[in-house]
Amino acid sequence: MEEKTIVERLREEFPAGVRESWTSLGDDVVIIDKGMLLPIATFLRDSPGEFRMLLDLTCVDYPGQEPRFEMVYHFFSLSRNRRLRIKTQISESDLRLASLTALWKNADWLEREVYDLFGVHFDGHPDLRRLFMYDGFEGHPLRKDYPLRRRQPLIRLKE
Amino acid sequence: MTGLKKKRPPAGQFMTTQFNSLLGWARKYSLFHYPFVTACCGMEYMSAACAHFDIDRFGAGWTRFSPRQSDMLLVVGTITHKEAPVLRTVYEQMTEPKWVIAFGTCAVSGGIYDNYAVVQGIDQIIPVDVYIPGCPPRPETVLDGLLKLQEKIQHQDQDWRWKKKRS
Amino acid sequence: MPTRIQKQARQDTMLLNMGPSHPAMHGTIRVMLELDGERIVNSEVEVGYLHRGFEKTCEHRTYFNLLPYTDRLNYVSPLINNLGYVMTLEKLIGVEVPERAQYIRVLMSELSRISDHLTCLAAMAMECGAFTAFLYKMKAREFLWDVIEQTTGARMTTSYIRIGGVRADLHPGFDAVLKKAIDETRLVLKDVHGLLDKNKIFLNRTRDVGVISREDAVAFGWTGPCLRSTGISYDVRKAHPYLVYDQLKWEVPLGDRGDNFDRYLVRMKEMEQSLRIIEQAAFRIPKSSPAFVAAGMSPSQAIKESRLQRVRKAIALSPNLEGSEETRYPDILASDKSFVVPPKEETYTTIEGLINHFKFFMRGHGLRPPKGEVYFAVEGGNGELGFYIVSDGTDRPYRLHLRAPCFHIVSALEQLIRGRYVADVIPTFGSMNMIGGELDR
Fold it and tell me: What is the CATH number of domain C54-287+369-440?
């Protein structure tokens, strides 16, 4: 009996939530609706697929496109030894997304990093503030419209 | 030690210049350094401080992790804008006489990181005596820089006259 | 501006700042502790003091140019970072690497891994007071770095592993130097086992300190030796084998309690396994092509002659280029010309070689992977080191993201030290092997 792949099971469970899916270069990629992030993540963690580990979450900025930002999540299942990439798109006008801190503990710092560098707000995050940059830094450095060399020194520099 | 012109010793009588040299000799061979280690150069600092390329044979072996107890600030690695106030505070807490060595190109000039986060050289924050380039510098380069600092210390005015003018 | 812990602290507790300039030589991280006597009631970890804008800088550099930036990520095991980045790109492009180059990559990777574990445990031991262990391990590290330097040209930040293979072949005396390094490392490991394994002081400071359960470790996204110390066997080299790891015989050491001592022991045992891998790889490596004949005309002479006629004689390259002669290329670099630097002999003497060389380095040309995205992970010194590259078809990455293993490990620090003493922070933090370049990018 062929076991259903995780992508097929996701499509079954959330027919409206899953927009696209494909496999390229050996990676499974699924694009989902942003409102369905928390239910799908809960399903991934608790279902028999057991994607117990959140490997990474990051963001990519496409300034010309609408929606502008694309959030990328990498999940890993220790028991199945499989990785899965989940992507969802959010637009600049509504830069909010559900937080995964209730499900995975490392989502805390990962989401703070994305907030710091891109400006994405995570609803339900216990303590959303900057991680890498300092208080008083204005702007979000990894956005494409932030110039590479715009410095905001904390103390007065000579020369 | 090529490349460093021997400065004329400070003007004064024979005994005072001799005492000056004595103080310089004592200071250069008993440097207590504060390794302000941030990044990759820290690995080469560890190599320079350990058995193979010992800096203890030059008198600089005692690592003092308190700015009050050290007289040489060894800024090792990249300094970011977030770290800059900390560096400034540590430098100001050190007591005179003090010297600063910029270890590695990131401390010298920002290195390969020319972006929003990195200070382009610590001489924008604190005065620097010796610059050691390299990414990371080999331990031999570090020792060469240390020797240059020692030469500088030997020939500078040791500022021991307590009746000097306050400017 | 007050930080979270300053706002939340109780009236009767003391706030202690273990500031960014830390004597524990881990670089720069700030741990603020709220203390009730010696007990830690709460803590806050602040990172970002070494955020050097790696990801943003990489968007402004070509794929080839950003190789030195990857060296400086996990700077105690730079060759593994090189490898991770290069293999991610090779997965995207679809490049076949010659077998000898794969063995060389495995060798260099494992040497880097041993030096990573040596440095981590040396720092951890030194901070607990075991200065001798630190000096012994630094001595062993010097021997390993000698090997790396003689092969790659640099002790630490090497940029040796290139797209399509490696930069240069192994030099003729490699086996002897490697054997010496392995023997010295084995002696040092034996000594350190004797010094620390049953040392009552070290055990008191590390046994049952910084304990993490398996569920928590997975929930935090821990990978690498820290995860294996809890008993979960996940090693990227075994789970998703890359290069020639599946052809070599070695084991994955596991701990059981998830405390600091287990993390120390797992790393010590991993070093033994890495030495085994190195010995096997050095034995099984395919023989190199026939030795290059050193005598030949100088490059400037060859360039002059090539203006008049096709030069067929041998060219003596500079010693810096030793190992990357044209005859070595089938061993060390892939045959696809668009992704590797052309050999110098061709560049000096043929017009096609010169054009290829220019086009490889010119802005807008050169290495242009197909459009798409890719994620690939290797086993770094700390765990799963993953690179996520989004390519838009140009010569610069559109987005390059690093999955830093110690980021997830350090995010658990607050939980691990809660309720413990101040002195427990040091071995706990030391056993996590925080590397600032990787954590803050």
Answer: 1.10.645.10
φ, ψ of residue C333 to 5 degrees: the values are -135, 150
Contact by Cβ (8 Å): C155, C148: yes
Report how far residue C150's alpha carbon sits from residue C323's, in angstroms, rounded to the nearest whole number.
11
Of the partner residues B37, B44, B51, the one whose CB lies closest to the CB of residue C25 = B37
Question: Could you tell me how far CA C60 lies from the centroid of its own chain?
Answer: 23
B107 within 8 A of B77, measured Cβ to Cβ = yes
Q: How far apart are CA C272 and CA C280, in angstroms?
A: 13
Q: Among A151, A154, A159, whose Cβ lies nearest the Cβ of B85?
A: A154
CB-based burial label for B20 (10 Å; 0-12, 13-18, 19+): buried
**Chain-centroid distance, C-alpha A120:** 10
Identify the bridge partners of residue A18 per DSSP, sorted by sequence position: A32
Cross-chain residue pair B35–C25, CB shorter than 8 Å = yes
DSSP character string of C32-95: EEEEETTEEEEEEEE--TT---HHHHHTTS-TTTTHHHHHTTSTTSHHHHHHHHHHHHHHHHT-
CB atoms within 10 A of CB C160: 22
- Ranges for all domains in chain C classified under CATH 1.10.645.10: 54-287+369-440
Residue C29 exposed, middle or buried by CB count within 10 Å (0-12, 13-18, 19+): buried
Round to whole Å and give the CA distance between C3 and C19. Answer: 14
Residue C48 and residue A132: Cβ atoms within 8 Å? yes
**What would the pLDDT profile of B90-120 be if each residue is shown by its tens digit?**
999 998 889 999 999 999 998 899 989 899 9
B82/C51 touch (CB, cutoff 8 Å), yes or no? yes
- Cβ within 8 Å, pair A105-C412: yes
- Residue C434 CA to residue B42 CA, distance in Å, equals 13
Q: Measured on CA atoms in the order C165, C166, C170, C171, is the torsion positive or negative?
A: positive
- What CATH number belongs to A6-94? 3.30.460.80
Distance of CA C32 to the CA centre of its chain: 29
- Residue range A84-90: average pLDDT? 92
Which residue of C25, C28, C75 is in closest CB contact with B40?
A: C75
Assess contact for B50 and C138: CB atoms under 8 A.
yes
- The Cα–Cα gap between C170 and C174 comes to 6
* ipTM of this complex: 0.93
Kind of pairing between the strands at C14-18 and C30-36: antiparallel
Map residue C23 onto helix, strand or coil: coil
Q: Could you state, in order of their start, the residue ranges of all structural domains in chain A?
A: 6-94
Residues in chain C: 441
Spatial distance between the Cα atoms of B31 and C236, rounded to a whole number of angstroms: 46
Give per-residue pLDDT as tens, C62-107.
Answer: 998 899 999 899 999 999 999 999 999 999 998 889 999 999 999 9
Torsion sign (Cα): C306, C311, C317, C323 = positive
